[in-house]
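Suppose a colleague, Dr. K., hands you the sequence of a protein chain of 140 amino acids and asks what its three-dimensional shape might be. Before reaching for any lab equipment, you can write down a predicted structure in token form. Begin with the sequence itself:
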Amino acid sequence: MNNKGFTLIELIATILVLALVMSIASYSIINVIKNAKQKNYDLLIEHIKEASETFFQECKYSNNSGINCNSIGNGFEITLGELVTYGYLKGNDSDNNNSLINPLNNNNINNCQISIVYNDGHLSISNNGSSDYCPDNYDN
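The predicted structure, expressed as tokens, is then:
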């Protein structure tokens, strides 16, 4: 007899090896994507902190022409969308860069309101509880 071809056992073994390789690869790819989103989020928080500090300084010490400075005690309140509108922060949406998108959950965070307060020689930024999807930790 001239047997040319694979047996059922050989085919099943090959499929199992390929499935194992695919599961390891997909796990690695998912982790890479997750880490990239976290790094992008951390970078966004850093940009928000820098923009908030600049906004605070201009509201506190300049004539702030064209800027709406909502004063609260030792600081100011502003939405993240206003920071984009006033040019302190660049939007990160893929269409027109006028919106801020949270990279972790892809929600628009323009309406997130923050407080920028100066206490004991330290500028602190906090979420005003505007929404569950707004960033809430600016002290990374």
